[in-house]
Amino acid sequence: MSVLSELIDLGQELVARGLVLGSGGNLSFREDDRMFITRSGALLHQLTPDDFLAVPLDEPYRRPETSPRPSTETPMHQAAYLARADARVIIHCHPVNAIAWAMSGEPLPAVTPDFTLYLGAEVPSLPYALPGSDALAEFMRQTLPGCPAALLGNHGVLVTGDTVARARLRLHHIDETAEICLKAKAAGALRPLQPDEIVEVLAVYGGAKN
């Protein structure tokens, strides 16, 4: 199955799981010196190959005057690919639990071994920035070299991967962990994995898959 076909299937899954509503969220993949990103207004559960538009990665993005236009989040995706040479796929969606946790301003900590293997010790929570803005793109440039994903304040998440499968797993680990942390914090019993436990997980299972 091609990356394009996998992303079309993933769009249906994201909507079915309630991780995005309406025309929110966007998907992209890298091919050589270009990325292909969903068009502005595309519904992720109804994507076709024509909904993915090519954008150069090696020149400043200028929004076209006429439709169809790439997603307004194109600058964020472009910055993310340039920040992570290993990124071949990007998922941006709006998981409720991740948005709720990001409001605390705290990074999302590793609370399970699987999270550690795919995302490291934590995923940073970024301040709010206007969707599509240069400020949001700059956050990607600063943050993603150290982590393959980020929580976007009052907005959603951005997840990268070298494959659709890896990006999907990272997204689901973020969503699951945010729910765990919210429930544990409400119960007064939030206990992230400790640094020595993280080191042990990585040593035993061969290093982080990030």
Topology:
Layout: H1 3-16, E1 26-31, E2 34-38, E3 52-56, H2 74-83, E4 89-93, H3 96-102, E5 108-109, H4 113-119, E6 122-123, E7 125-126, H5 134-143, E8 149-152, E9 156-161, H6 164-186, H7 195-205
Parallel strand pairs: 7-8
Antiparallel strand pairs: 1-2, 1-4, 2-3, 4-9, 5-6, 8-9
Explain what this protein looks like in three dimensions:
The structure is a single chain. The chain is α+β, with helices and mostly antiparallel strands and 210 residues long. It has one domain: 3-Layer(aba) Sandwich (L-fuculose-1-phosphate Aldolase). The chain is 39% helix and 18% strand. Strands 3-2-1-4-9-8-7 form a 7-stranded mixed sheet, sandwiched between helices. Strands 5-6 form a two-stranded antiparallel ribbon. Helix 2 (74-83) packs parallel to helix 5 (134-143). The longest helix is centred in the C-terminal third of the chain and has 23 residues, at 164-186. The chain is globular. 42% of the residues are buried. The mean pLDDT is 95.
Task: Let me know the CATH homologous superfamily.
Answer: Class II aldolase/adducin N-terminal domain
The overall strand count is 9
Residue windows where pLDDT falls under 50 for at least 5 positions? none
Q: Which class best fits the helix and strand makeup?
A: alpha+beta
Q: What descriptive keywords fit this protein?
A:
210 residues; seven-stranded mixed sheet; 7 helices; L-fuculose-1-phosphate Aldolase; 18% strand; two-stranded antiparallel sheet; alpha+beta
